[in-house]
């Protein structure tokens, strides 16, 4: 198409979308709002900007140049926030090291990312020492400490972060460069193979931030992060930019509280003492928060909370509602920066009794502005928006990883026909509300239909004699795949395949599942294989069956 | 700088920022919210999208291709809104014709823009007929009417807008193209020369919209446009995209009310009947609203209002406050899309009595997110942020015109050293609040300082014998320029230069002005030249003096 392309006058500034520009507004709107680090440290937005300038000097003095990668190994901290800005702002790449990985995996990711400098908190010095010989790319370390002095170490360090900042100038002229420059890099782990690197440019992060600000703050029926809120993350900063909220919060200039290492009682105490109003966390963390001792004596009324990462149960939703927490569910993944969808309640849904809202609040909601999201059948066509038909979630947005770092073949699997394939199976209803059902690899593709293994497991588990169940798809010449179920009966009882098939027939009759969804083969076993974190190990089950 | 540029996997989608993507969210979030046209027409967001598809078919059927320009001559209407989207979405350029210009100027702009198709409302058919012979580029017209049938005309028309839409398909596959494609074009008039065209790309408008949404909605101390608001413009849609708010409102999916031709009583009635909560208008329009008959019987409490275009007086602010209107001031210009700054009240200022807020609410506030704004002295250095020192406002933002259409020399004057020079003189205070003082061409540059002619006029006018005053700068060998004042004494009284100089000395003594700001030459006259709209005609005064 021959559109008219914009012409620029001599000396016109072609504004690139760079992370530095997100820092313009926070200190203008709310210069005296605070950044708080646990119960250790606090300062205002003017100081934040000065410290980012100082860190930029420290990094360049340590030899970091444009295109270099800087790793951070830290809990959630004000220093991490400073690195979120200073590292990309000098044209370098911030690698958020996932400190929960095994030492081997950490070393793999740090070599793959070619980290040249590492900012390492005292708590991770031991592991850094253990790995340093395997990391020829690393030229040195900067130590982060919460004590008067960092721990003694054999690492080749440039010194202590605070001491280095102390000496540096608080002015830095941040350069302009291509908005498509890589700003951040981190790794996502699947069940197989090495961790894969996803990467995001300045342009992508700026767009994720300003669009996320508009989406999070403007709808009465959504999580609300606005100027007078107080933000504390409970999804780690090494995990998908802490869902991107630190950038949004900083752009707005809201008060931010970084809790260090996550300890439930400390998180609740910080919530209470710092008057936190907005947080996010995976269901497991929220469960820990609700169950800790401090929670018993803490009023959590009005705490706005976004959950995601895995589906919250209705029971968790009920517990949160009982504490007065206003919770919402988000959907996204490492590959998507991550924000894609959020619970949204329209005015009539907002008017419902909270108990009646719970089923809505654990849905993943509708796509954010600028997000083009489809649920596609195996031929790539949209499934009907009936809340029942399932397909794969495929997506376009201005902030999706453009591939896997240095692995073009894997990137080409992620991106098919110009759509990022999430690997998630979902339905979408008439109102556009997305409901994630399963991972596509756990879906049973039978007779041209997709059957959710999770749904089948849920239906089978309703049989009174069933204690545990796992469903997988096994190859079938006629149907493509058929469902296969492993059953552990309730202790001291027995159950047979015929009884279970009869049990499932009632759901066929009520129209909930198709007849061919009923597993032809059902094995009664004494134990079902699990992964190290207690999830059904379907990979192993498949291997054992084939 | 050698940063690492992002690499894209095969088939990865490189999302261009296109206006079509602003339409994704409104109909998802609030499908049943309404678009209202005066008391004539209303429909919901699903219909809006269908009508935009239909209009795209009508335009392409009429031969409009990518890169062509389509003109609209209409009051504020739902059809104008449809054109805001459909025209750029097919890769064409929307020319918002300023129907307040003289016929000669309209014809100049339409030829300069090379309009190929014109959407013309009944009210402008007569002028279109008068001009059509002078517009060889125009291949045809589409008529817009509020009646059963459009007015009879000798114009070469394709037919009636509604009849054409009726027949068109409500599906259209909008193409992707370069985000730097020109989307909109309109003309700004100065006091001399022909109108100048400013132009904005898809990328610029998308960024203006999502950033504007975040800025307008997220700060408690700012005008708040959020999901449950009802929007009605009172700045015409042909004037700088109605300040960009129709795009923001549509992205959010809020109810929108388009009032047609501005008639104060009708505007107030629509405000009341449609429960409008958010509007914007220049001070003159607001004054008309306050003074009309409907206003007397209408409760305006809580109506959020942004004013701009020229400085509101404290008296207007007081009148608005007396009616319960929550008003704010914005700053921007045709060249800037337009949003640059907005009144912002911090929490302690919000807590003040409304009467004490007025002086703050008529300031132009602080720059929006992503806006890099400086007040620079003649050497290009930042003036002190003391609320007193004045300089020219220079700016960078992702949505500034990159020049004047087909006039590169004028564009090079606008853009100097990579900063857009607004031609406005302002001070900025410690809190970053901008206060526009004057147009730079009306500033007196004397002894290396800038003196605001408006401020001098205000001080001189405080002398009891002065009825009218105009101050200009006249060349001076030693000082560069010196102030020169023309005075009209109060009827039946006299005043001499010495008395006025003595009067001004008190302001020198109080530190308000420098001694060299006192005009050396003061002429007492019986009349001061005015422009056709009653403003001081400083251009004529300068010519008469030189």
UniProtKB/TrEMBL annotation, chains A, B:
Q: Keywords of this protein's UniProt record, alphabetized?
A: Fatty acid metabolism, Ligase, Lipid metabolism
- On the tree of life, the source organism's domain of life is Bacteria
User: Do you know which Gene3D superfamilies this protein is assigned to?
Assistant: 3.30.300.30, N-terminal domain of ligase-like
Q: Please list the residue ranges annotated as the AMP-dependent synthetase/ligase domain.
A: 31-405
Matching entries from SUPFAM superfamilies are given as: Acetyl-CoA synthetase-like
Q: Which residues form the AMP-binding enzyme C-terminal domain?
A: 455-535
MF term (GO), any: ligase activity
Q: Name the NCBIfam families on file.
A: PRK06187.1
Family label = Belongs to the ATP-dependent AMP-binding enzyme family.
The name of this protein is Fatty acid--CoA ligase
Q: Which organism is it from?
A: Amphritea atlantica
């Amino acid at each position: 198409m021959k559109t008219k392309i914009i012409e620029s006058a001599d000396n016109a500034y072609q504004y690139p979308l760079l992370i530095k520009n997100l820092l313009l507004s926070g200190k203008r709107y709310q210069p005296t709002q605070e950044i708080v680090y646990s119960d250790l440290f606090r300062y205002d937005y003017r100081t934040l900007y000065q410290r980012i300038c100082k860190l930029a000097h420290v990094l360049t003095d340590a030899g970091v140049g444009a295109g270099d990668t800087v790793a951070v190994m830290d809990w959630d901290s004000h220093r991490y926030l400073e690195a979120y800005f200073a590292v990309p702002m000098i044209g370098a790449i911030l690698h958020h090291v996932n400190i929960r990985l095994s030492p081997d995996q950490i070393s793999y990711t740090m070599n793959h990312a070619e980290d040249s400098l590492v900012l390492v908190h005292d708590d991770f010095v031991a592991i850094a020492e253990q790995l340093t010989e395997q990391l020829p790319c690393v030229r040195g370390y900067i130590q982060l400490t919460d004590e008067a002095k960092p721990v003694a170490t054999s690492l080749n360090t440039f010194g202590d972060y605070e001491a280095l900042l102390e000496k540096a100038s608080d002015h830095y002229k941040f350069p302009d460069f291509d908005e498509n420059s890589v700003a951040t890099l981190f790794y996502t782990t699947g069940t197989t193979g090495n961790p894969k690197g996803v990467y995001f440019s300045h342009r992508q992060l700026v767009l994720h931030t300003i669009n996320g600000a508009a989406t999070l703050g403007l709808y009465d029926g959504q999580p609300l992060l606005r100027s007078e809120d107080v933000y504390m993350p409970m999804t780690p900063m090494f995990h998908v930019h802490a869902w991107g909220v630190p950038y949004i919060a900083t752009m707005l200039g809201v008060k931010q509280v970084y809790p260090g290492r996550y300890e439930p009682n400390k998180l609740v105490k910080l919530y209470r003492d710092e008057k936190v109003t907005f947080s996010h966390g995976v269901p497991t963390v929220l469960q820990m928060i609700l169950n800790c001792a401090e929670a018993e004596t803490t009023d959590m009324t009005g705490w706005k909370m976004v959950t995601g990462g895995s589906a919250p149960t209705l029971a968790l939703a009920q517990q949160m509602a009982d504490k007065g927490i206003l919770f919402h569910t988000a959907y996204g993944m490492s590959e998507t920066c991550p924000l894609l969808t959020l619970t949204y309640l329209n005015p009539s849904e907002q008017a419902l009794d909270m108990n009646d809202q719970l089923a809505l609040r654990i849905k993943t909601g509708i796509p954010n502005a600028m997000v083009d999201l489809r649920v596609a059948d195996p031929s790539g066509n949209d499934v009907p928006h009936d809340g029942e038909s399932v397909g794969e979630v495929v997506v376009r947005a201005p902030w999706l990883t453009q591939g896997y770092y240095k692995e073009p073949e894997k990137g080409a699997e992620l991106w098919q026909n110009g759509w990022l394939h999430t690997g998630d199976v979902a339905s979408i209803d008439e109102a556009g509300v997305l409901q994630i059902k399963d991972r596509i690899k756990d879906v049973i593709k039978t007779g041209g239909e997709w059957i959710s293994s999770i749904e089948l497991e849920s239906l089978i588990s309703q049989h009174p004699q069933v204690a545990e169940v796992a469903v997988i798809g096994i190859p079938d010449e006629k149907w493509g795949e058929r469902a296969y179920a492993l059953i552990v009966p309730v202790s001291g009882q027995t159950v047979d395949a015929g009884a279970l098939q009869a049990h499932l027939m009632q759901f066929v009759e009520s129209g909930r599942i198709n007849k061919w969804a009923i597993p032809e083969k059902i094995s009664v076993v004494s134990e079902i294989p699990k992964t190290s974190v207690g999830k059904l190990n379907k990979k192993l089950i498949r291997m054992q069956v084939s």
